[in-house]
Design a protein that fits this description.
By secondary structure, the chain is mostly helical. The chain has one domain. The chain has helices spanning about 1-20, 20-115, 120-130, 140-144. Helix 2 crosses helix 3 (about 120-130). The termini are far apart.
Amino acid sequence: ASAEDAQGAEKRPDAEEASMPHWATRCAWRDELDLRAGQLERTSLQFDATKRSLDAANEELQWQATSAEALRTRLTDVLRATSAEERRGEEAFAEEARRCVVLQELLQRWANMKPDAPLPQACIQAQQLLKPSEGKDPVHMQSS
């Protein structure tokens, strides 16, 4: 009896579907398809929004990478220019120190040529200009 009941139960849905009009089965599937289509549409919209966000984030990252590279290049240029200016400054200070030594030698020669004669006014002014710089390195002379 139970085997017959199981077979009868299996036959009942078929019997129910057969007793339902054709359009009713079609409507049930249509509703399911509409539901799935709505889900797919929402998922597609979410995907599109996520893609737009990712594209915007990628564009921002590209801009930041380009800006960072430009800043690195600018920094390299500034460091190179700073180094060149420091070299020029050191060369100028070295030239000034060399000129001071030459001037001191010339003043000493002038004084030795006429030991008893007074120095000309130009020599006195040159000595006065050299006095503040004696014993100082050229870097300190700039601020004095």
